[in-house]
């Protein structure tokens, strides 16, 4: 039930969707006896859409998330294992075309290639089933297996967890699959924006991990914000960052993370 509710809420509450719904409502109201209110709502919604598309809203929402957990030092001790979270595969396109289609989070899958060159003895684990509300005939784990085998990463020794639908299930199912031992060092690879919520969830699940953030969308510096004049990029960052902030609150309120805003 949590998964279904979260997916529905994510659809209706994302900033770009909210602004579009409000704009549509304003237009409809403009043709009723509430025309004045409708025009005001339409104008406010249009301004919000412009701010999302061309303003710094997304940057200021995303920067504190991405700056929360720094990258580990280059000379860190070799890890015993590497856990890679799903979210980098376009399930619909992959299933339709029968080949791997990656999205803007592709670095989640390319970073482990370099990590295994540095730490060849580390166990590599991918966790990700289908995040689609109605399910999918082509899971992320299937797609990633194809991708990593084509790049030579998977020599038959990679572990795949293919049942999880969200980050909470990533943590619990992976913990039960690999059964990490006390004192082992495990890296967690996911997008920098997603790292605070992921770390809180893995800690709550009793699976200590070391953050290895990738897929940065900001420079984390409030004094030097940069704006994207590619509308789809700006809207994507805003929606993704808002999703993470709402997710932090929801997961904390439902006891799935160890802190409202997990810290190093």
From TrEMBL:
Entry-linked Gene3D superfamilies: HUPs (3.40.50.620)
Keywords of the record: Membrane, Transmembrane, Transmembrane helix
Gene Ontology BP terms: Gram-negative-bacterium-type cell wall biogenesis; peptidoglycan metabolic process
Superkingdom of source: Bacteria
Domain DUF218, residue spans: 80-247
One cellular-component annotation, GO: plasma membrane
Transmembrane segments: 12-31, 43-62
Entries under PANTHER family matching the protein: ENVELOPE BIOGENESIS FACTOR ELYC, INNER MEMBRANE PROTEIN, PROBABLE PERMEASE
Protein name stated in the entry: YdcF family protein
């Amino acid at each position: 039930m949590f998964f279904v509710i979260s997916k529905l809420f994510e659809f209706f509450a994302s900033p770009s969707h909210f602004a579009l719904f409000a704009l549509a409502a304003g237009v409809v109201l403009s043709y009723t006896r509430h025309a004045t209110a409708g025009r005001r709502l339409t104008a406010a919604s249009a301004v919000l859409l412009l701010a999302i598309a061309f303003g710094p809203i997304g940057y200021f929402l995303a920067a504190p998330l991405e700056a929360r957990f720094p990258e580990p030092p280059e000379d860190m001790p070799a890890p015993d294992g590497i856990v890679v979270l799903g979210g980098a595969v376009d399930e619909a396109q992959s299933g339709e075309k029968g080949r791997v289609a990656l999205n803007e989070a592709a670095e989640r899958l390319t970073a482990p290639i370099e990590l295994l060159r540095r730490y060849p003895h580390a166990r590599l684990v991918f966790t990700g089933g289908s995040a689609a509300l109605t399910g999918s005939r082509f899971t992320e784990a299937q797609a990633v297996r194809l991708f990593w085998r084509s790049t030579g990463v998977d020599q038959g020794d990679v572990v795949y967890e293919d049942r999880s639908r969200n980050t909470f299930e990533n943590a619990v199912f992976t913990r039960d699959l690999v059964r990490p031992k006390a004192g082992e060092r495990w890296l967690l690879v996911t997008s920098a924006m997603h790292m605070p919520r992921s770390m809180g969830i893995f800690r709550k699940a009793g699976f200590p991990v070391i953050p290895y953030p990738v897929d940065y969308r900001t420079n984390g510096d409030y004094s030097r914000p940069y704006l994207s004049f590619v509308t789809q990029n700006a809207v994507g960052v805003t929606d993704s960052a808002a999703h993470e902030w709402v997710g932090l609150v929801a997961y904390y309120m439902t006891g799935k993370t160890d802190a409202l805003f997990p810290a190093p």
